[in-house]
Each structure stands twice: as structure tokens, then as C-alpha cells.
Amino acid sequence: xxxxxxxxxxxxCDEAHKMSATLFGGEVKYTKRYHLGQLLSGLTRHFLLMSAxxxxxxxxxxxxxxxxxxxxxxxxKYREGxxxxxxxxxxxxxxxxxxxxxxxxxLFPLRMAYTVxxxxxxxxxxxxxxxxxxxxx
Length: 137
Prior knowledge:
Domain Helicase ATP-binding: 1-72
Largest sheet: 2 strands, parallel
Helix content: 10-25%
GO molecular function: helicase activity
Structural class: alpha+beta
Protein name: Helicase domain protein
InterPro entries: Helicase_ATP-bd (IPR014001), P-loop_NTPase (IPR027417), SNF2-like_sf (IPR038718)
Keywords: ATP-binding, Helicase, Hydrolase, Nucleotide-binding
């Protein structure tokens, strides 16, 4: 991939979690989108990555993702206790339930969730059990 001969003031990438890299078996696997992110981050002064799911539960992968924003700070293989997970200066988490309009009313209506009891037929119960067994493996 070759960088264009230009620079931008701001680059915004939505669904940025797709710019992923994964540490597996001691080797880092980079997606093409990750390489695009590396390229774009070098072409702009301000790089905004937007994602509802920036963390997949693996600290090493998260560090690789954060390296797109600060390659010096998140350089190298993640090591527990050595690398800091403090990213409050780079990341802002917006919880949907806390979002407000300018008049301070909730942006989204209150979500009411409740469990509805139901009964499964013997065939449905068998199918559910088989599916649950596969998912548990």
C-alpha cells in the first residue's frame, strides 16, 4: 500500500475495531484494515477512531489497536504489569443511557427489559440442548 502525496488535518474512521491485529502463538497477525490505519495515522495530525467495541477482551490485541493512535506508547509486545492499560487521555467512552440532548433530557428512551416465561416442546428442548452444547465447546 502506498501513501498518497498529501496530508489531512483530520481523518475519522468509524467501525475502527475492524482495523485489528491479533497476537496468536507469539506472532502478530495484521488485517489489511490495520495496515490502512497505520498509513492514515501517518498522514494526519488528528486521527479519530470510532468504535462501540474497541476491546475484545485481550489486552495484547487492545495494545496493538491503541498503537494506531500512539505508536511510541504502545510499542512492542504487551506484558502484564509492564504496560499500562490507562488510556483515558486517548479514549472517551460514551454510555448510551447517559447521553443527553441540549435541554438535558435523555437522548434515548428508557429501556425496560423483562423476562417472559415460556415452555419448550420436547423437540425444541432437544434442539436447544444440542445448540447449547455446541456453543459451550
